Amino acid sequence: MTELAPERPRRSRPVLQRPLLPLWAAVAAAAVSGFLMDLSYPQANIWPLAFVAVALLLLALIGRRASGALLVGAVYGAVFFFLLVSWTSRYLGVVPWAALASLEAALTAVAVIPIALAYRWLPRALPGPVGRLVGLPVVIGALWVGRELFLGSWPYTGFPWARIGMTQSESPLGALSSWVGVSGLSFLIVFAVAMLVESVRMRLWRRPVALLVPSGIVLVLLVTPAFPTTAVGTMRIGAVQGNGPSGYFDEREPYSIVQAQTDATEPLFGEDMDLLVWPEGGLDYDPFQDAALARRMTMVTTRVGAPLLANAATGRGDEFFNTSILWTQDGVAEQTHDKRFPVPFGEYVPDRDFYNAIVPDLIGLIGREYTHGTNPPLIEVDGIAVGLAICFDVIYDEVITEGVRGGAQVLVFQTNNADFRGTDENLQQLAFARMRAIETGRSVVNISTVGTSQMIRPDGTTMAALDADEAGALLEDVELRTGLTAGVVLGPWVQQLLLWGGLGALLFGWWRARRRL
Hints:
This protein is α/β, with parallel strands linked by helices. Helix content is 46%, strand content 15%. It contains 16 helices and twelve strands. Strands 5-4-3-2-1-12 form a six-stranded mixed sheet. Strands 6-7-8-9-10-11 form a six-stranded mixed sheet, with helices on one face. Strand 3 (308-316) and strand 4 (319-327) form a beta hairpin.
């Protein structure tokens, strides 16, 4: 009788990660998450809610398949972006608002799918406690940053307005941006929240010693000081908020904007200063083409005894630029900077023929096509380099980094918020300017046509301010700093490491999970 061979032990089949929440509850949690995330941005500016919002969204995504994650992400993105960018409807109505918010919601829906897949694959690929408590949160944080980079770069030049790191400009965690950049701060926030979620799911409160790791990491994040830069003196800067009729649809007489700026500058006439700053849109016409405007600017520089950094739409050949101009007492301007990222559908229309066929009335309002600038975001005043960013350029890391790497000892941001009076837009942008001060270790002068305008210290605190919808002038000795923070040096590398590292870890998790089946 033939002896039967012993049966091989069957490999255990890991249990698939199941959703923590039923789909209806996950959708509700995503909606609440989007609402709370909006409250973490100005005007409400309740920054701790960003952590709660991330936790709710992660709970809604855990265990979901791609289709469920798509729905959860769409609901989160729609609630968040329709609230966050509601200021786009201030003058142009619901069409631009709905278009932008819907696009960002759709991109968010697609971009959260890798996070859901990571929760399905990584626990099977890295089943140990270290993998669950550290490895998985690292990948989740990296994929979150990848989502932010995706939305911030596509389509066209992207819309990097909603990075979670930007919510922390008045939080103790803001100092971390000077070490790892804004994207690195986003990663640390999501990593900490994901680690807390796993700590609860693993019931670590039953093993208090195991809680030392997450508790220690959170403590380090809270007490880390800003990366040091070196103070090298001061520059006396005047900044003027004219509160003139500078909105796209404002009714105005010829030269009424420059007149408002001049009137608000008068209290500074005769004062000692090194630089006078006017906001974006502070000139009615191109001073290189308008002799009367050029004479007015020369008069102002003469009365204050300092060069004037102004801004206007300028033409060169067949191209138009949004240009910052350093006008001198000699009536010349040899230093200029053109806005690097004109706003799609605001300052130019990409694929104009296509969109004109869809909404011709709205596209017809944008008659001038601004060209993307290529010159450095820097000027030099008496041997001191000043870094520049024009309006929404403040949200693009490469503009800020290029200025600071070019030797800027102070940053000046010129903006025109007249088209968004009475909305959260200005305060959101001002918070981004504050974060740039902390990230770079530089003082920031953020001057608007209609406010709110502020001078901000390198630690993010406010030195001087002008309220919205009021004309006024600031004059302060602004601290100059040298030295590059780790956030400036390492920030771009951190972004690439998180982007490709997160995707690579996801593929590794998929491969390992398949082998273990």
